Amino acid sequence: MLSATRARSLLYRVTTTGVLISYSMPTFVLGGLLLFLVFYQFSKVGSLWFQPGYYPFTASPITWLGRMILPWITLATVQVAVYSRLTRGSLLDALGEDYIRPRAPKDCRNGG
To answer: Where in the chain are the domains?
Structure first.
């Protein structure tokens, strides 16, 4: 919503670029990047939260949850990109309607 209300600003350009990159990137590439950037970096430090391989939910729900975070983030990133583009487009359409008036200057609001 911020990128729609502040069109042509630096924030608009950064968010639009990020959304287009995440929307156009295949999920297997994004998953590979997350594996390298998150899993590999955390495993070098010694974090045991992100572990490779499948672990059954019935054995340990907490361990299963830790191993499912990266796939969830990978799939959710694409969906967030889709919905943010739709929201931005709808908001730009609504802001362009006749019933939306721009805010009056500060000195004109109180009659002087």
So the answer is: 2-97
Per-residue model confidence as pLDDT tens for the chain (112 residues): 777 777 778 888 888 898 888 889 999 999 889 888 888 877 777 766 666 677 888 898 888 887 888 889 999 988 998 898 888 888 888 887 777 766 656 655 555 4
Report how far apart, in Å, the C-alpha atoms of 8 and of each of 2, 3, 14, 51 are. 11, 8, 10, 42
Radius of gyration for the alpha carbons in the chain, expressed in angstroms and rounded:
21
CB 48 within 8 A of CB 16: no
Cα dist from 81 to 11, 85, 87, whole Å: 16, 6, 10
| pTM summary value | 0.66
Query: What are the φ and ψ backbone dihedral angles of 90, each rounded to 5 degrees?
Result: -65, -40
Q: 8: number of CA atoms within 13 Å, CB side?
A: 0
